[in-house]
Amino acid sequence: MTETPDLELEPYPGLPKGTFREKDLPRPAVIALGIADEGVWSAAVETYLSVIDPDTGKPDHDRPLADAAASAVHNAAATCQAVALDYSARSDDRAAAQEVEAAKHVAEAVDVIEYAGGIMHETVTGPDGEKLNGWRIQAIHQRDEALARQRSSEGDARHTQHGWEKSWRLIAAALLGAMDALLLWKPLLNLSFEGSADNTFRWAIGAGMVALQVLAIEWAARTFVNAERQSVDRRSAAGDHNRPLTSRRLLGDEAAPSTDDIAEADQQYSQAYNILVGVAALVALIGGVRVAWLGRQADLPFYEATLFGIAIGLILGCVVVQMARLYCRGNLLGDRLRIEGEAIDAIEARFKRARDRISGEREAAHNALAAAEVLTNHAATLRDLTLADYRRAVELAWTWFGLPPGDLDHEEFTRRAQSVVKEPTAKHDALLTRLDIVNKWLAERGSPFTQTAAHQHQLTGEPVGEQREPVTPVRRPAGNQVVIIGRALVEIPERPKPPHRLMLAGVVVTAIATITTAWLAPAAQAPSTETAQLMVERPPSPA
């Protein structure tokens, strides 16, 4: 919104004051001295004395009074014009300077508009790592959004999920490793915080075992997540390819994976699942052995140490499997939408910065023009006040001449006294035209993705508002045989099932290892009866 500038305007000083001898003044002038404005009175006296000779009381050279008075009025008009222009000169100069400032701001705004018009042609990174301009990334994003809505309507909303950061896998694996280091390897290797070489060597062994476990968990989880994502993405792509042939609701342009590609991804998924279950079984085995060993060291009965060991070991193994499954969030479509969204946000951020700059330049130009208008109006006011005062002075002098008031030609005086002010030039009109262009651009371009129907047709080759329907060409070679040429359904095999047998084998191996450990681990040795009696009967030592 344009603000009215707070300008310091020069006050109207009034007409110049003169010094006269009282004997040269007519009696009416002496009487009017204390009544009329001093500047107006001085201008009237000057006009009077330019006609009447103070010594003779008659016009100079015996000219007719009416002619001499009319000539004096013309001279007064010229003087009025000069004084008015002098009073308004500074305001006119300031107004011209403000217009020059406004022209600079408008020129800057137009330059930024030209830059903003090319923002959509600047390249950004697309979802496949390629360099695309803004229009292309918008078309791809709209297509992927339509595909996401289609999948959501069919109950597949995995693209709305956001995968966990990879660092969380390392943190979770490190926590399991730290727990193993403190609860298994420390008592098993008799680790302490002494500075001996033997203790340092044992710590190195424990740290190496922990690192192997952490890396194994991270590698198995990462392999499983990647294989599961690849399998899901290929199945989803095949479903997108088959959709228009079954429901005729949406047509995709991407090439669909073949049945062999899907089978290959499923095989990698099964292998990764087996690796994950194997690592989880190893973690469960280590956990069960650890708890059974510590339980026996704590003098727990055999069956309690076994029960706690099996339960805690299986829980740890399930944690590893479920942790990897929790990481299986999102899919390729969701990743594409996020990358496209980030690219679009980057374009919109550039456009917003340009638009804010244009808006700022526009406001500065408006303020400068408003200031110029205020200064121009003030200059006109100064000229009008000067003209009004000189008109009063002329009227006052005319009455001192003793001439009829009706003989004074007010229109002629006004015509001669009015200042000649430059009208708005073509440069000023061009400035207003360019400012209108800036205003219109800001009103119409709230987003860089605002496009016309012609531009959309140029990008996609399709009429606006129409959607392509799948077309399946056919030909009849002979008889009643029909050969379909074009898109065909991709057969999607059944999704691989989890390796339940391997899971069961891991449970069995964990149970056997835990039972064996609890059976073979030495129980804590209780003090003998004689030692206990000596400890009870021993008298306290003197202080």
Question: What features would you describe in this structure?
Answer:
With 543 residues, the protein is mostly helical. It has 14 helices and four strands. It has helices at 27-32, 38-49, 65-117, 134-153, 166-188, 197-246, 259-297, 302-327, 332-401, 410-417, 426-444, 453-460, 500-520, 529-537; strands spanning 123-125, 131-133, 474-475, 483-484. It has a two-stranded antiparallel ribbon with strand order 1-2. Helix 7 runs parallel beside helix 13. The longest helix is centred in the last third of the chain and has 70 residues, at 332-401. It starts with 26 loop residues before the first helix and ends in a 6-residue tail after the last helix.
Read across the widest sheet, the strand sequence of neighbours is: 1-2
Query: Any idea what the radius of gyration is?
Result: 49 Å
How do the SSEs run, as a string of H and E?
HHHEEHHHHHHHHHEEHH
3D shape: elongated
Rounded mean pLDDT is 80
Number of helices: 14
Distance between the termini: 93 Å
Strand tally: 4
Instruction: Provide the low-confidence segments as ranges.
Output: 452-475, 528-538
